[in-house]
Write a structure and sequence with these properties.
single chain; six-stranded mixed beta sheet; 17 strands
Length: 260
């Protein structure tokens, strides 16, 4: 279940190895902005041009503000960093704590309502949709927020809570609540999140997995399997009565037991 996720820590960031603080980035912020714009144009079919991304993508505005506030944070300008992050929250509706560690290629699509806690660690090429919370579940001052590996996709409204690890190439379904670690190359859906490990590996060269409409129904599949088994046993013992409720081929449930 455990996995070593390649996310740079804040202490490494302060030594200059972290991408946000690399001298080339500090000397060339426009290069970083151009790279981010190219990333969004590749990842969002709604983006029609660089100027639109520059002016209209509040998710990216929040990420750019985070980079500056994190730069201040690791240099112990803590109050200035928090103040800047709150200003960005007012204008974008996205709250990213300056103490969080975020890799390159981070994309917040639509953005409104996203909350990223202080000890969150996010890998490279991660995509997050609106309403996502990467929150803590402890009053302790240590690690208390999630760690996301590379190329993770978190659907709209999902809540990832606690010092858990979401392995690389995972997809978290919309509105899922995840409270335990997830192995790499998995899909998580439901409340609490049900983990389904993919049968095939996901090459790192693949585009982000954004197929949120194609999610497994672990509980529904289990229920259908149990009903089929009960029916099979009853037929074998001379019963053969089909009990309500039953599910048709389109996934709709039928039965006299339902009162609506």
């Amino acid at each position: 279940m455990s996995e070593t996720v390649n996310v740079t820590t804040s202490s490494e960031a302060s030594s200059g190895s972290y991408e946000v603080l690399h001298p080339a980035v500090i000397r060339g912020p426009f290069k970083t902005i151009r790279r981010d714009i190219r990333m969004i144009l590749e990842r969002d079919p709604a983006a029609k041009g660089a100027l639109e991304v520059l002016l209209c993508y509040t998710g990216q505005h929040a990420v750019w503000a985070y980079r500056l506030s994190h730069w201040l944070w690791v240099r112990n300008f803590r109050l200035s960093a928090r103040w800047l992050s709150q200003v960005a929250r007012i204008f974008t509706g996205i709250e990213i704590h300056p103490g969080a560690t975020i890799g390159k290629g981070f994309f917040i699509d639509h953005g409104m309502g996203v909350v990223i806690g202080e000890t969150t660690e996010i890998g490279n090429e991660v995509t997050v949709y609106h309403g996502v919370t990467l929150g803590g579940t402890s009053l302790a001052h240590g690690k208390r927020h999630p760690t996301l590996g590379d190329r993770v996709v978190v659907g709209a409204g999902a809540k990832l809570l606690g010092a858990i690890t979401i392995g690389s190439d995972c997809r978290v379904g919309a509105n899922s609540v995840v409270v335990k670690s997830v192995p790499p190359n998995s899909v998580v859906v439901g409340i609490p999140g049900q983990i389904v490990i993919r049968a095939k590996d996901t090459p790192s060269s693949d585009k982000p997995d954004l197929q949120d409409s194609n999610l497994p129904d672990a509980i529904g599949t289990t229920l259908r399997t149990l009903l089929a088994r009960v029916e099979q046993l009853e037929k074998a013992t001379g019963g053969g009565t089909i009990h309500s409720p039953v599910q048709d081929a389109d996934g709709a449930w039928h039965g006299e037991d339902f009162t609506i």
